[in-house]
Amino acid sequence: MKTTLKKAGFFLITWLLISINVYGQCIVSLVSDSTDTYRVSPQVSGNTIVWYQRDGTNGSAGNIYKSINDGPPILVSTGSTTYNNNPQIFGNTIVWLGSDGTIQRVYKSVDGGSPTLVSIGSTAYAYSPKISGNTIAWVANHNIYKSVDGGPSILVSRGNSTDDRDHQISGNTIVWTGFDGRNRNIYKSVNGGPQIQVSTTTRRNHIPQISGNTIVWSGHDGVDFNIYKSVDGRAPILVSTNNSTLDGGVQILDNTIIWAGSEEGTAHIYKSENGGSPTKIPTSTTSGISGPYISGNIIMWSAFDDAMIRQIYKSVDGGPQILVSAGTSVENYAAQIADNTIVWYAFNGGLDFKIYKSTLVHPAVFDPIPTMSQWGLLIFGLLLMNLGILFIQKIQPYI
Asked: In what order do the strands lie in the sheet with 104-110?
C-alpha cells in the first residue's frame, strides 16, 4: 500500500511538472544562427520560416534565408540578383524583391528550386510583393500588378486612382488603397475584373484586409477613425460600434475582426465575432501596442513591458495576456503568426539581430513559469503523498 501511494504521488507530481513544461503556452527557440548580423522581416508558413539577412555572400546588400523544421539557415536567393529583400511565403513558394543590376523586380522560389522572375514584362521598379495561392501581386509605378500561375505581369488597378498601394489577396480578389484626387479610397478587383470602389461613406481610408467575401479597413468619418467592413460587395458597415477612438491596425480571419483602439488615452485590442458587438482582449500591458494579428484562436500583438522593453504577447481563446518573447531580454519586433507558430526578430544593439520563434505545443493550460495556483497543486500533491504514507504507517499494526 505504501509503495502504491508513493507511485501515485510520483505520477501526480510528474504529470504536473510535464503539464507546466509541455502543455505550456510556448517554447521559444532561436531560428537563425547565433552570429551577429542584420536579420529582419521574418515570415512563417507551416514548418518554414523565411527572413532577410545581410551577410558576406552578398556584401551589405543581403539575401533571403529559410529554415525548415528548425533546421539550419538555407540560402534561398541563390541567383545573381542583389539587394534581395522583403520575403513573403505561402505554402512551398517564397517570393521576394531583388535587383538584376538595373531595376528591382519580383522573384520566387518553389519547393526549394532556383529563383525565377515573376514580374515578367514589367519595366517599372517593383516593391511590396504579396502571395496567396497561385497569385502574386506587387506595386510598380504606383499601380497594382499581378501574376497568376507564373504568367506575365497583368495590370490590376485599371481605374482612375493614383498612388495605388497597401494591397492584399484572398482567393481571386485583390484589394488596395488608391487616391482619386480628393480622397484615399478602398478598391477591389475580382477575377481580373474592373476596379470597384468599396469605401463609399468615409475618407482617409487605409490598409484594407480581406478574408473570403469580407473586406475590412480603417476609415475617417469626419470625427475619428473607425473600423468598417463590406460583405459581398454591399455598402460599408460600422464595426467599431464602441466608444474607442483612433481605431486601426485591423485584421480579419473568417468571421472574426480584430483591431487596436484607445479609450480615455489607454490602448486596447478589440474583436468582433460574427458581426457582434466589440469586446476587449484582456491586456495588462497597453503601452505602445502594435499589431494585432490573428491566426486560428490566437491573437498576437507587441507592446512595451514595465521596463519599456518591446515584447510579444498573445491571447488564446480570448483568455488573458501571455508573454511570448520570454527570455530574450531584448527589443522584439515585426512578429508574424501562422497556425500555432509566432516568429519575430530581436534586437540587442549593434548588429545583434536574431530570428526567434514560439510554438504553441498545446492550448494554454499552464504557463511555462508556474503560477501560484500551479505551485499550490504541486505542494498539495507532495503533502497528499506524505499524509497517505503516515496514515498507512499508523494503521499498519492493526491490519
From this structure: 82-90, 93-99, 104-110, 116-117
